[in-house]
Every structure is written in structure tokens, then in C-alpha cells.
């Protein structure tokens, strides 16, 4: 074990012990304050979570009086439990116990982070491009191309800039192919993830490097590449002081994707013409029929031949998302694992909604796996899909595959890097970390010393 790995293991052990201490203190404070009423306090808290989840389900899946009842439950349950604690004069104990429990959770997560060394991507030697061509969308990210003066900065570094004419729909695939025919030796995009995927596919097809300029609104792809999303002009450093990575490219119905394909209610709703003008109202109007299966496509799917049943919603991603993070920022620890991430979700009633609220990703409503091929069928000839944020209608069956290492990607040598994804909570692992024999067989991927050293250099 190296000195830094030993330091990390020691920190993980300290944090795991602190987490257990906080959890124990949370229990002691509660029992000391509430005595025999402690189980009731915990039960009341859990009941509030369950009732609020049922309320949320009724809001989403029903209309009229049941939706109203759902609203009352979702708001009333947390308020009710607060009033109950206040009435029993248990406020200080409950607050202190919750604060300690929160501290315990935070320490536990930190301990797991220290114990997990994500494998850095392998960096390949490469020479700077001589004739880079960058496609820029002046409308992306609310006008970041102009705001960050990207055209002038890129041209000053010797790049040819192709500015999209957003008054009409331009075929970016043809623009990218033309740029290569004109002699470009690197393609890049300052724009949304959908545009990134189309141009990345052309780059992969011709074996030239691709470059991402984080000028979109969400920039999910740029985030998982570890680029600076606050200042897209920093991405241009890849032209002069860059390194090359090899990453995977997803393919759905023969079309490339860099992040995610979604099927189900979300994909159906965003295709409604009225969605652009009234997002929340359209979602609330459409969700009940979609969730209860009265309208919309009934999906069924198979991952590498394993049936996934008939999920209500299905996400297929280019490499799996960190589960603990899926509903938050949505982060993929790596983009070169050579597999698709698959998440199927099925909630058909209030009980399952409550189970999902209590057990999260461990709930029976969630199914996760990795696969090389996912085939999605529906009860119609076509199905709505969101591909890297673009609303599309695809012919069924829809085949999703992955092309491992298909894309050469050039990123700045000095970039913020990918923050480690929040680990899934596992108290048994915390106990082992705190008191088990120290070892270096952590949950890391098998990072080699040289990889780690290169990544440290890469992330500055
Ligand atoms: N190929 C294209 N030709 C012409 N205009 C385009 C093209 N692609 C996108 N646009 C226009 O640019 C706008 C913004 O594009 P895009 O969706 O790529 O960026 P974004 O919304 O900022 O990114 P994100 O995917 O991160 O949300 C679109 O709403 C559309 O008006």
C-alpha cells in the first residue's frame, strides 16, 4: 500500500468511527429524552414519510378530489409529525437526535468516499491538432458563445469556427462531415448534448479526436468528462495543452448518444406541443393516464436477453450512473467501462410509492443492471424516447448498444476533473471500515499507480 493509500485508509477508518459514534449518540439522545416513547417517535417519523409519499403518488397519478387529498397528505403529514413532537415536548431531543443522525450519515458517506478510489481514465499521448474545426451554437446555454467570446478565442488558437444558423434547422452531421472533407483533424462542439452526440459520431466514424466545449445549458457530458462548466472558454485549452482519452459511445436505433436514452412518461410528456409553454401543467395533466397505463406506450425490455418486465420508465445510459446520484445531479464515475447502464422503474400504486420513499434504490420498484444490448419494445409501432435531451419517436423494437472505446476525446490537461460520485450508504461496510482489519482491498476499481499519477497531473 502506498503512503497516500495508507493515509486514505486511516481517514476512512476515522470517519467510519465518527459515523458510528454519531449514530449511537443519536440513539442515546432520543432514548434519554423520550424514554419508552422513543420507538413511537421513530415510528411517527417513518409514518410521516410513508404518508407524504402516498400523498405525492396521489398528486401524480390521480386528478380531482384524490389529487387534492394527496396534496393535503403530502403537506399535512410532515406538519402533523412536527406538531406531535412539539406537543409531547420532545422538540429538543428530536432535533438533536436528527442533527446527530445527519452528522453520522455525512461522516459515513465521507468514509466510503475515502475508501473508494475511482479508476482514472487512461490517458493517451497525442499531438495538438493542426486544423481543428469547431461547430458553435450561438443559442446554446442562453448565448454562452457570445458571452464568453468563444469564436474570437477559438480563432486566435487557430481553429476554424462554424457558427450554426439557428433561424433554420441545420444538419450538423453534414456540417461535420464537410469540415473533415475540408481537412479538419479535430471536431468540436460548443452546444447542447444532442449536438455533441451527432458530431461525436462523425468524429468516431473517421477516427479523429472530438472536443467538448461546455457551452450548453446542462452540460451533462462535459460534467462527466471533468470539464469546467462555469467557464466554457477553459475547454479551449484542449487545443493547445490537451490530452486524449478513449471513451464509449452509445447507439440507439443506429443514432449515437453520449449520455442517456429515456423511455416512458417523461419522454411522452416532452413530446406534447403544449409542453414547451406550460411544463408543470402539462405534466400534471398527462401523468395520471401515463402512470396508470391508460395512455402512452406499454414498454417491455430485455437487457442482454434478461427480461426487465414491463417498466413504466426505462433509462439506458452510456455507462451506468452512480445510483446514489441518479436522481440528483446524475453522474457517471466513468465513461470507458464498455457497458450500458439500465434503470427500470415501476410504481403502480401508493404502497409502492411509499416503499420507494423508504428504501430508495433498494426498493422493488427500481431495477438496475448493466448490459451490452438493451432491446425495448412497446405495444405500438413507435415509441417516444428522449435521446440526450432530444425528443424523438423511434420505430419498435428499439435496440440500444454500446461501442466501447469508439470515441477519441481531447480534453484540457488541467481541468477540474470528475468529483467522486456519492457512494451508496452501507452501514455494514462502515462497521467493517471502523473496526475490521485494515486492508487495501477497497471498493476501488483497479487503478494502477501510473494511472493515478497521470490523472493527478491531468487534473492539476
Ligand atoms: N442543428 C441545429 N440547427 C439550428 N439550430 C439549432 C440546432 N440545434 C439546436 N438549435 C437551436 O439552438 C437552441 C439551443 O440548442 P441546444 O438544445 O443544443 O442547447 P441547450 O438547450 O443550451 O443545451 P442542453 O442540451 O444542455 O439543454 C435550440 O433550442 C434550437 O433553437
TrEMBL record:
Metal-binding in keyword set: no
A single GO molecular function term of this UniProt record: kinase activity
Record SUPFAM superfamilies: NAD kinase/diacylglycerol kinase-like
Database matches in Pfam families: DAGK_cat
Keywords assigned: Kinase, Membrane, Transferase, Transmembrane, Transmembrane helix
Transmembrane segments: 15-34, 40-61, 68-88
Region (Disordered): 113-138, 433-460
Limits of the DAGKc domain: 127-256
Enzyme Commission designation: 2.7.1.-
Domain of life of the native organism: Bacteria
Compositional bias per record (Polar residues), positions renumbered to this chain: 440-460
SMART domains registered for this protein in UniProt: DAGKc
Protein name in the entry: Diacylglycerol/lipid kinase family protein
Protein source organism: Kitasatospora cinereorecta
Highest classification ranks of the organism: Bacteria, Bacillati, Actinomycetota, Actinomycetes, Kitasatosporales
Amino acid at each position: 500500500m502506498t503512503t497516500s493509500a495508507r493515509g486514505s485508509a486511516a481517514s476512512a477508518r476515522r470517519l467510519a468511527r465518527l459515523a458510528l459514534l454519531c449514530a449511537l449518540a443519536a440513539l442515546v439522545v432520543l432514548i434519554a429524552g423520550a424514554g419508552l416513547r422513543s420507538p413511537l417517535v421513530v415510528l411517527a417519523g417513518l409514518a410521516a414519510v410513508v404518508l407524504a409519499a402516498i400523498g405525492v403518488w396521489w398528486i401524480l397519478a390521480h386528478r380531482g378530489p384524490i389529487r387534492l387529498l394527496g396534496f393535503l397528505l403530502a403537506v399535512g403529514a410532515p406538519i402533523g409529525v412536527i406538531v406531535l413532537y412539539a406537543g409531547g415536548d420532545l422538540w429538543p431531543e428530536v432535533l438533536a437526535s436528527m442533527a446527530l443522525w445527519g452528522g453520522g450519515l455525512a461522516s459515513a458517506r465521507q468514509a466510503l468516499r475515502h475508501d473508494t478510489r475511482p479508476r482514472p481514465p487512461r490517458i493517451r499521448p497525442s499531438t495538438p491538432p493542426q486544423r481543428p474545426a469547431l461547430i458553435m451554437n450561438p443559442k446554446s446555454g442562453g448565448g454562452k458563445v457570445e458571452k464568453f467570446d468563444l469564436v474570437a478565442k477559438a480563432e486566435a488558437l487557430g481553429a476554424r469556427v462554424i457558427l450554426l444558423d439557428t433561424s433554420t434547422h441545420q444538419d450538423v452531421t453534414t456540417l461535420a462531415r464537410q469540415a473533415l472533407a475540408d481537412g479538419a483533424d479535430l471536431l468540436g462542439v460548443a452546444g447542447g448534448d444532442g449536438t455533441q452526440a451527432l458530431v461525436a459520431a462523425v468524429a468516431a466514424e473517421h477516427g479523429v479526436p472530438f472536443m467538448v466545449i461546455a457551452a450548453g445549458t446542462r452540460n451533462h457530458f462535459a460534467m462527466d468528462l471533468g470539464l469546467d462548466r462555469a467557464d466554457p472558454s477553459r475547454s479551449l485549452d484542449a487545443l493547445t495543452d490537451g490530452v486524449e482519452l478513449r471513451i464509449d459511445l452509445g447507439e440507439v436505433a443506429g443514432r449515437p448518444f453520449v449520455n442517456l436514452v429515456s423511455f416512458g412518461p417523461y419522454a411522452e410528456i416532452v413530446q406534447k406541443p403544449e409542453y414547451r409553454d406550460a411544463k408543470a401543467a402539462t405534466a400534471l395533466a398527462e401523468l395520471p393516464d401515463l402512470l396508470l397505463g391508460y395512455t402512452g406506450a406499454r414498454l417491455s425490455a430485455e437487457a442482454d436477453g434478461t427480461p426487465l418486465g414491463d417498466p413504466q420508465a426505462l433509462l439506458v445510459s452510456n455507462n451506468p450512473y452512480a445510483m446514489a446520484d441518479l436522481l440528483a445531479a446524475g453522474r457517471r464515475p466513468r465513461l470507458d467501462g464498455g457497458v450500458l447502464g439500465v434503470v427500470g422503474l415501476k410504481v403502480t400504486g401508493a404502497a409502492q410509492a411509499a416503499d420507494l420513499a423508504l428504501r430508495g434504490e433498494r426498493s422493488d420498484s427500481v431495477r438496475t443492471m448493466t448490459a451490452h444490448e438493451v432491446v425495448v419494445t412497446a405495444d405500438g409501432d413507435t415509441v417516444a424516447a428522449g435521446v440526450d435531451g432530444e425528443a424523438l419517436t423511434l420505430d419498435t423494437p428499439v435496440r440500444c448498444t454500446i461501442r466501447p472505446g469508439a470515441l477519441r476525446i481531447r480534453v484540457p490537461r488541467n481541468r477540474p476533473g470528475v468529483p467522486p460520485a456519492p457512494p451508496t450508504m452501507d452501514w455494514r461496510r462502515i462497521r467493517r471500515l471502523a473496526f475490521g482489519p485494515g486492508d487495501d482491498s477497497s471498493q476501488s476499481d483497479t487503478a494502477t499507480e501510473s494511472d493515478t499519477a497521470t490523472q493527478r497531473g491531468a487534473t492539476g
